[in-house]
């Protein structure tokens, strides 16, 4: 990867913050969906839906741009499309494993939503750790920002009782974090060589097809349950998959992987805020953020701002 790809830009930060916002809201729909349909069913339908939503965008854009292309350029695009299918397949496998392990963590009756959010967000730490295996150098200030972000996540997601005993849900969430870290690193490697929207579309189709196959093998999907979960599926499919994951792929082209993972961990903050807003909107008693949660949000914001200030300083 060339040097300018390793620097974080304002564009990348904004796109990844939008990604985190959409994912945070999706956390609520994902939790609700787990009560109505089984894991493979929920993920299979929503990821295929995410791919289908992107198809018209790809076809229309290719048709418009193709008119002004030479035969050589069209041949080059066809060559790149073949590369995109290969790279997108690797991303789709990683995404399928990550999202399904996370959904299984929600199904566990002993799960804690806060702990799932905290453990899943460990990809913020796993990204630079796994990167070291591939001789990817991470600046010292980035490690400091990651540790500060971790402290913020702990305050945000874990209550005064602490982590407590390790449960099956915790193990599943940690496995999920590993595959999300792999997916983030793969995007950093593949995205600069591919069309971001097409790469995202292939990723969803591969992930969705695998989940749907598992759905018919291991689960018993019922139309009534799918209809009941229609709104969570639509939001998770169109917004979380179709929009947010595409923004992630495009945003990571302007943002280094470790900084990207730190910014995207803001989904935990947005998830807490979305849960509070959801409860208030539907008159469910209106969840009020505790001082501990507000402190966690503030620390995470501080970690991101610090990372950007240090990044700007390193450019000067």
Description of the molecule:
- The chain is globular, with a radius of gyration of 20 Å.
- The chain has 13 helices and no strands.
- The chain is mainly α and 316 residues long.
- Helices cover 79% and strands 0% of the residues.
Number of strands: 0
Secondary-structure content class: mainly alpha
The string of secondary-structure elements, in order, is HHHHHHHHHHHHH
Distance between the termini: 21 Å
Low-confidence stretches: 1-6
What is the overall pLDDT average?
83
Helix percentage range: over 70%
Number of helices: 13
Q: Which percent band covers the strand fraction?
A: under 5%
Radius of gyration: 20 Å
Task: Report the sheet with the most strands, covering strand number, pairing sense and barrel closure.
Answer: none
What would the principal axes of the Cα set say about the shape?
A: globular
Task: Label this structure with key terms.
mainly alpha
List the helices and strands and how they pair.
Elements: H1 10-34, H2 39-66, H3 71-107, H4 113-120, H5 123-133, H6 140-157, H7 168-190, H8 196-218, H9 223-228, H10 230-251, H11 257-264, H12 267-281, H13 291-315
Helix pairs in contact: 1-10, 1-12, 2-3, 2-8, 2-10, 3-7, 3-8, 4-6, 4-7, 5-7, 5-11, 6-13, 8-10
Summed up, what is this model?
This protein has 316 residues and is mainly alpha-helical. The chain has 13 helices and no strands.
